[in-house]
Write a structure and sequence with these properties.
Strand content: under 5%
Number of strands: 0
Helix content: over 70%
Order of helices and strands: HHHHH
Number of helices: 5
Distance between the termini: 50 Å
Amino acid sequence: MDEFLQTVAEIAAAFAGFASVVVIFRQNRSLSADYESKVTFQSMLQGALLVVFFALLPIVLGNLLHSSTWAFSISAFLLMVYILAAFIWAMFQGGWSIGPGALPYLAATLLIAGTQAAGLLGLYPLPELYLTGIFVLLTISGYAFYSLITFPEKTGNDN
């Protein structure tokens, strides 16, 4: 399990690194004026760093506590609290409205929170559900990376 979590952390770090390279190359053009690209990059980078943190957290806690059960329980609880707090904060910032663009993030939030709660309640094995939550976070970060490199850049002639 530790090797899989380390691999997930490495993939997330690669997303962050590649996105940084994309931003550096785009910076020569219009990125400094492109708010959407800035937000996409920030979301991708933040998501990737969170995946790295939450992928390595059970490994560190397992070594500190000498109990993988407690390590996954604490990690799942922290992941659930983080994802719910982040979504509530985003909703607060957006005036408590859910637009069509927020629906995938709402679905991801509910999936992550639901899987972690089910694992903490003992309905399903916690390590597998924790990995599901980490995978969803990685998918969100990967989608942000994909949108960063594929959305066309706006030029001064675009309306």
